[in-house]
Amino acid sequence: MSGIERIGVSLETELLAMFDKQIALQGYQNRSEALRDLIRGYLAEEKLGQPATLAVAGVFLVYDHHATNLSVKLLDLQHHHLLQVISSIHIHLDHKNCLEIIILRGKVKDIQKISDKLTSLKGVKLSRMNILTAV
Ligand code: NI
Hints:
The protein has 135 residues and is of the alpha+beta class. Helices cover 41% and strands 30% of the residues. The longest helix has 18 residues, at 31-48. The chain starts with 12 loop residues before the first helix and ends with a strand. The model has no long low-confidence stretch (mean pLDDT 92). Bound molecules: nickel (II) ion (NI).
């Protein structure tokens, strides 16, 4: 485990007050934990900008299961990308609509490619991908 270093940071009073208010709303017990999370988030975002970075992602798709062949196409795509697709969850939202959450793992560039293929399928009504660095 790495050591801990204490640092001093100078901030405008108003900025610090806004920061304290926000982190209290989010449930942080102290500034240090909030700052650590912000720094980790910043570094992870930078890494996600590099195509070869290893990442995990959830692709959320809402679609009409009556749409021509869409369920079959979704399954075909997942079978074609076995190394990247590690799991999926299917939820019947109502009589017509389904939510599929497909979990991907791999390089950022491959995840993005598969996500684009999934979200552009005809019949997908809403989609969103959430991606994080794998480590
Ligand atoms: Ni369904």
